[in-house]
Amino acid sequence: ALRALGIVRTVMLTGDNARVAAAVARHVGVDEHFAELLPEGKVSLLRKLEREHGPMAMVGDGVNDAPALAAATVGIAMGGAGTDVALETADVALMADDLQKLPDAIGLSRFSRRIILQNLLIALGTIAVLAPTAVLGGVTLGLAVVCHEGSTVLVVLNEIGRAHV
Question: How far apart are CA 46 and CA 118, in angstroms?
Answer without folding.
Answer: 33
